[in-house]
Amino acid sequence: MMELTLTRINKFGQTYILSEVFGPTYMTEVSTNGKSMMMPHHIQLFNQGWYQWMNGEVIQRAFPFLTSGEREFLLTGLTPTEWDEMMKEEED
Q1: Cα(92)–Cα(90) distance, rounded to whole angstroms?
Q2: Residue 66, Cβ neighbours under 10 Å: how many?
Q3: What is the pLDDT of residues 41-70, one digit of tens each?
Q4: Among the listed residues 40, 38, 37, 5, the one whose alpha carbon sits nearest the alpha carbon of residue 26
Q5: Considering the entire predicted model, what is its pTM?
C-alpha cells in the first residue's frame, strides 16, 4: 500500500502537509508550522474539501465532517488547546 502525502496552502498562505496514516481506520495527519493533528477521515475527503474551500465555499460546508477545532486548525494553525489558552488569557 502506498502512502499519500499532499501539500496544500490555505487562503492565508499557510502551508499544510496532509499525510495518510494506515491503521484499522483511515486517518489523516494534518501538519503546519511544526504542529500536527490526527483526524479520523480519509485523505481524499480533505482533498475534495480543500478544493471546494479554495474555490469559494465556506469552510463549514467544505469540511462538514470536521469539528470546529479541526476547521480552526486549517484556518489559523492553532490547535484546540492553543485556542482555549488564548481565549482563557483574554478572559483574565
Answers
A1: 6
A2: 21
A3: 888 999 999 999 999 999 999 999 999 999
A4: 40
A5: 0.82
